[in-house]
Amino acid sequence: xxxxxxxxxxxxxxxxxxxxxxxxxxxxxxxxxxxxxxxxxxxxxxxxxxxxxxxxxxxxxxxxxxxxxxxxxxxxxxxxxxxxxxxxxxxxxxxxxxxxxxxxxxxxxxxxxxxxxxxxxxxxxxxxxxxxxxxxxxxxxxxxxxxxxxxxxxxxxxxxxxxxxxxxxxxxxxxxxxxxxxxxxxxxxxxxxxxxxxxxxxxxxxxxxxxxxxxxxxxxxxxxxxxxxxxxxxxxxxxxxxxxxxxxxxxxxxxxxxxxxxxxxxxxxxxxxxxxxxxxxxxxxxxxxxxxxxxxxxxxxxxxxxxxxxxxxxxxxxxxxxxxxxxxxxxxxxxxxxxxxxxxxxxxxxxxxxxxxxxxxxxxxxxxxxxxxxxxxxxxxxxxxx
Length: 386
Prior knowledge:
Elements: H1 7-14, E1 19-23, H2 30-37, E2 43-45, H3 49-57, H4 59-64, E3 70-73, H5 81-91, E4 98-102, H6 105-115, E5 120-124, H7 130-133, H8 143-149, H9 153-157, H10 162-182, H11 187-198, H12 207-214, H13 218-230, E6 234-237, E7 253-256, H14 259-265, H15 271-276, H16 280-298, E8 304-309, E9 315-322, E10 325-332, H17 343-352, E11 355-360, E12 366-368, E13 371-375, H18 379-385
Parallel strand pairs: 1-4, 1-5, 2-3, 3-4, 10-11, 11-13
Antiparallel strand pairs: 6-7, 8-9, 9-10, 12-13
Helix pairs in contact: 5-6, 8-14, 10-14, 11-12, 11-13, 11-14, 12-13
């Protein structure tokens, strides 16, 4: 397996905290990363029924097996362990003893924040960034291939057919995690809800319309989407909010953490389908936004992400705010750049006194007056230079 970008940050956090908690989607590589970075630590997967039963029924004795700490994988399966870990950590606050991973955001972060506040660092590991994908021998050579294959490590490590693997992944998520955490009996409707959500990637998240198209109530749609967020399947990008003299859209936009999964859910079954699909531009926008999310998480940084759209239709896909600095990113999937692509985003950049980059599906880098043109393959380099 390749070396992940987050490795250095994980080591650094373990030097400063007795507990490090890593959350992220299933199959994003959390277990592999932790076992590579801490090869001498005992490893326990709480998905195993016998280990989970031991941890839940006799937590003190379970933890006593590991006097020097351990990696506790899928921690959400026994979240009450956090209270017992608090006692152990307070008695012996040696840094880097306990590494926790979880693929269900709310239960893990809630238990950690309640019992291990100030004792645990929190990191999010998402599917591979583009720079990590390039570390594999057979990385995608085209944008369409990158959108089709997505970024889950197993697809690239084992050169698996994306359609087969993503189909199994989506079914497993619905059948296991949804049943475990959502108490949903109608899995067919939930799977349709996921498909319809994927079809809205890069669009405003109108919960009423999504509920109507799925044939469920709006409260049910809101609850189901929260489950997609908790499982690191999808996320909301909030609208930009500031004291400026503009009437701004307040509704969030919808994105998927893995563009390959979104492509699969909307019915794309081959690379050449991406080239002509009407949602190709939306998928590329999703790719750009998710790459920025990964970049920030992999380096352990903090930044506020939002999008800009006013009632006159002037918009920018992504605003990255870090301290007093702002970077605006506009995604254009075409290979050829035209200056009129930057006209409206430039108005927003001037209004917000921000740097602007147009990320294209081409291969040409340009530095123009008031903005940069960044090819999709160089987005990571550009973000590091900011």
